[in-house]
Design goal:
It is a single chain. The protein has helices spanning 2-15, 60-67, 74-78, 110-116, 123-132, 141-153, 170-180, and strands spanning 52-59, 84-92, 189-193, 199-206. Residues 1-17 have low confidence and may be disordered. The protein is globular, with a radius of gyration of 17 Å. It has a single domain (2-17, 45-206), classed as Ribonuclease Rh, Chain A. Helix content is 29%, strand content 13%. The termini are far apart. The protein has 232 residues and is of the alpha+beta class. Helix 1 runs parallel beside helix 4 and helix 1 (2-15) crosses helix 6.
Length: 232
């Protein structure tokens, strides 16, 4: 029974190592888990009840525009070319404080990192997300990442390839997502922009049953806001 359970866990992890469209990506042979870091004391919020969830999807070309030379960018920016990647799956609180750093988070297993690098292409980010968010709803990292992968596989991320010179708005990004994902609602898509209104992330909001739901604290950039999108 233990061998069967272990085999099932390996299969679940392997499925998470593929991109949302089923394509594979290049992964280094020598994979080393990131070190576990002490959480910032002011960010620890262990007793906050979870009221909803959010799957944060980063627009990888924008991140690589400013981080391509960093030590942690090999898989994301040099070995592969991604569109959207998973930043993390976040339990959110009902108020302004969200559950964070709810338990110990020793370094992830090599197999766990390898299985999820095509979804979240950074060993350090995987470690950080498990420590900050996963420990607030799951007892082990493998089921946490498996749930993130399940939600990720259910989404068909749009390429966001708009014609050159076309004015693009946050509403266009939401429309691109809902066109490919009829199960998503526009008010369940939080569009985050940074300096210069550059697209950074699209965050999908879920209820406690992991069904797409209205983002309780707004949708980020309103539909009419013009944004800049780094080409993939």
């Amino acid at each position: 029974m233990r061998l069967a359970a272990a085999a099932l866990a390996i299969l679940m992890l392997a499925s998470a190592a593929q991109a949302a469209d089923g394509a594979s990506c290049a992964i280094p042979r020598d994979i080393r888990p990131a070190k576990s870091r002490p959480p910032p004391a002011h960010e620890i919020a262990k007793g906050v009840p979870t009221a909803s969830y959010m799957l944060a999807l980063s627009w990888s070309p924008e991140w690589c525009r400013t981080h391509a030379d960093s030590r942690d960018a090999e898989v994301q920016c040099r070995d592969n070319r991604f569109g959207f990647v998973v930043h993390g799956l976040w339990p959110n609180g009902a108020g302004r404080t969200h559950p964070r750093y709810c338990g110990p988070a020793p370094p992830l297993k090599v197999a766990t990192v390898r299985a999820n690098l095509c979804m979240t292409p950074s060993a350090q980010l995987l470690q950080n997300e498990w420590a900050a968010h996963g420990t607030c709803g799951w007892t082990a990292p493998e089921p946490y990442f498996a749930k993130a992968a399940e939600l990720w596989r259910a989404i068909k991320p749009p390429p966001l390839a708009f014609p050159p010179g076309r004015v693009v708005t946050a509403g266009d990004v939401r429309a691109a997502f809902t066109a490919r994902n009829p199960h998503l609602r526009r008010d369940a898509l939080f569009v985050k922009v940074g300096d210069g209104n550059r697209l950074q992330e699209v965050r999908v909001c879920y209820d406690l049953r992991f069904k797409p739901a209205r983002c309780a604290k707004g949708v980020g950039a309103p539909d009419h806001v013009r944004i800049r999108i780094q080409p993939a």
